[in-house]
Model the fold of this input.
Amino acid sequence: MAQDAKKGFLLYYDYRKHLSLLSDAERGKLLMALLNYGEHGDMPEDLDGMAFMAFSFITGQMDRDAQKYADTCRKRSEAGKQGGRPKKETGKQDKANAYSEKQTEAKKGDTEKETDTETVTETDTEKGKESSTPYPLKGGQQDPVPYSKIVELYHSICTCYPKLRAVEGNREKQIAARWKKYKSLDTFRELFEKAEASDFLKGENDRAWTADFDWLIRPTNMSKVLEGKYDSGSKPRSGTTQSQTGGKPSTMDVLAGIIADEEGGGVFD
Done:
């Protein structure tokens, strides 16, 4: 989520109870990771465990805030176009000379033509959005990143996972970043086949958590799935199961539960 127009992001007081579970060093790394993500869309490589979990649910809220801000800006822009320019003051209108009035009449025909053209273009574009596949368009030019083929592979192979309705924002950036690294549809095919064959990623774990497309294409997660660490019969890495001392949940379990409440599902990386 690169902050193009905004100069920052929101931090909520509710995060205090989550961040208190981290050490000072982990909080420092987390803060820098959030700044890098907010400004450039970079994913951290040096966070793990509880710090990465906290990063996950905070950036999820950052993405929602950024989308809300973008929607507000878009609505204001559209409202401005519909309302036209603000009316001039009466005194200034009286000063308009005959030459200006002639210019206005001469331009009136061209303005109407431009308005008709814009209306048709916008209408056609909206119809295209409703009927087209949910892949980012690049002004009619062929995109070097095969978004549509990657999503089609996911839909055809990962039938047990949630379907995608749109490819935009951070999801689009993550796909582009993984394609830049692997540059192979066969690698994505292998990723999706392993995910579909993994009982653990499909919910057979102690929290009934299920992975999704966005989780699979995160850099660390994609590498681990391709390496077979989530294959059925393999034991997930330590820290993802409940503490065995008297059945008391570990700190990892507590944080995972918090994230589940915040996001509607757990995060296992």
The first helix runs from residue 15 to 19. Confidence is low (pLDDT under 50) at residues 114-133, 137-141, 237-251, 260-269. The CA atoms of residues 119 and 125 lie 10 Å apart. The radius of gyration is 25 Å.
